[in-house]
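Structure catalogue
Derive tokens from sequence
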Amino acid sequence: MPRKESRKKKSKPKKASKKKCKKSVVEDKRKCEVVLSMEDVHKIYDLGEVQVHALSGVDLKICKGDHVSIMGPSGSGKSTLLHIIGCLDIPTKGKVMLDSINVSDLTEDELARVRAKQIGFVFQFFYLVPSLSAIENVMLPMMFDGIDFEERYEIARRLLEKVGMGKRMDHRPSQLSGGERQRVAIARALSQDPSILLADEPTGNLDSKVGKEIIELFTDLNKKEGITLITVTHDPGIARFADKIIHIQDGKVCKIEVVK
């Protein structure tokens, strides 16, 4: 009888090992004016039978004039951290101080008021009003503060000059390039003199050349104007324009890297 071939046991594929968050945090011992601090911040989303721990004990200090980048993989808690820094959400546990205000327990209306005064937002997709000109887009947030037209116009004009858009003030977004629209969005974010400028993937919708110009503009505003800047990005090249990179994973700050 023919001998039966012995079957080799198939080895099971090895599961890819997930790197754990190894904490390597450089303690910031500078004496400075702290604009944002977080102490043992947790954020838990209750999904019925499951609880998702999006943030698990984040401690953070950002000083006036800092330029910080936040990096992390998808699902790391980066977006949740962004929402809490931007006063779009409050923690489940822990303390968040923005300037001298404890924002941890504020109502939605109170958060909205703090957000309008203290945080300037710049997003990946610009979010300009299509029917308004560049200068009208920059003037818009100030209108809700009751600032008269002449003062709003003068502030918006100066800001557009500052970001290199002085000659394009009367153009609508559809008449502007992506880089120009982002410059208008930056001017709008600065219109109420915020404590923190928060940029969420600000170069994600731009080509590499224009993206570099925009991050250089941010860096220039930080260095020359002393604007506190927090950039959320997945791009290591963009992150390295900052003075510090905060690496977040599994809802924790794993590493704070000082950029030389």
About this structure: DSSP finds seven helices and ten strands in the chain. The two ends are 75 Å apart (CA to CA). The first strand starts at residue 34 and ends at 47.
